[in-house]
Amino acid sequence: MENEKTPIPLSTDECEKAVGDKLGQSFDLLIRRCKIQSTNGVFFLIDGMCDEIKLIQSVIGPLTDKHFLVEPGSTVNEKIKSVFYKGGGITEKHTIEELTADVLSGCAVLVTEGSGCALSFGIQGYAKKSISEPQTEQNERGSREGFTDNFKDNASLLRRRLRTPDLVIEKLTVGTLSETPVLFCYLKSKADKHLVDKVKKRINSIKLEAILGAGYIRPFLDKKHFSMFSDTGLTERPDTLASMLCEGRIGIITDGTPFAIVVPYLMADYFHVPDDYLTPVYYATFMRCLRIFCFIVAAVLPGLFVALCLFHPEVMPSDIMYEISAAENKTPFPVAVEAIIIHLIYEIVREAGLRMPVAIGHAVSIVGALVIGDAAVTAGLIAAPMLIVVALTAISSSVVSRLHETVAVMRFGFIIIGGLTGLYGIMIGMGLMILDMSSVAPYGIPFTAPFSPYIRSAQKDNVLRRSWRKMGSSAINIDEMRV
After folding, report:
1. pTM of the prediction?
2. Which residues of 107-228 form beta strands (DSSP E)?
3. Candidate ranges 6-20, 86-100, 213-227, 284-298; pick with highest mean pLDDT
4. Beta partners for 50?
């Protein structure tokens, strides 16, 4: 049977053979024999994943010291657990499967002759990325610490910001082969129990062999029907996740990924940044309005420009329309085709700059700006007004970078609709976009809340941000938006 567990043999020789067979005689498996008083022992560890200095100082040194004495009626394992090892966690393992799982996690595991069990020492010391500034969520006045690839470091970053016993961080294991640690975080006093159980059930139901990042888990937490918008969000900032947990949401941290998943995530969250709470109220409100405007511009402006040029020239001032018409007549492509081509080129340049090494990425941007921009207009391949529209669209898209994937696809849809049906199609397309937003209800909470349905108590931190004097006394919980 596949689920049968193999007990740890009483003989260290048999245990050594069983572990070697289980791990396929891997080159990085280190097996070190030692003598503990008059008892034979053997250590199992993976080279490069265990802190060898801590192993020698905290474990091997005391155990092999001549002053280590086992009292009559006691065993070596009992003596170790009660007296000597004062480092990290120490646990007992009774099967070969449990032993190898701890060894592969970076623990040092000791098996003594005749004990029939193993002692696992939590002294991991593998290489990891240090804490650095977030790369995707820049801010001006807030914290400069971002999540790392190590889930334990991420848990400590969260604990430092929420020093309360209400913070629950449960460790789940996902992936039949990778056995990836996943941290399930929430506040007991804030999170709805039904929401906690539902999200945890979805994570435990994941049947994948390997979980190598947060992107593997996110689809299982999302809605089942197709939509351009997601039920979940990502954040690289511990302070942002802490604020989300204070609103009754759930955070999911995956080992190997410097991003935490936030469940549920609403449309309004895309337009909030940490700097909003560190700047004057009037400026934060202005910037939130600007971000909403930039989202609409990034998605709709190219399609609107095409629709006005092809179907509704009378809407624009005659002088401006004359200049646009004169510039477009010099190009070999229709306006709609030209818009699609230039936006495809923009996405290619953006992707190349993102994937290329940093030293070369700047050169890609310069080539894109000079050759594709200036030279294409001079050669008459692209009209200058269209290039201005693309530049405005690109800049606006960068303002709401967390919505770039959604906006990039919607932009082409609006260009095609505008080129075929004009303003009428643009209005229908915007209606479908709003309908799509309204159809998303992550875990019973409308995606468009607190805009629709209108929740008056939540408006003090929606588009308009009130001062901390007015917000601090009555913070809204995400469960209050449930329909």
Report:
1. 0.84
2. 108-112, 118-121, 167-174, 180-187
3. 284-298
4. 124
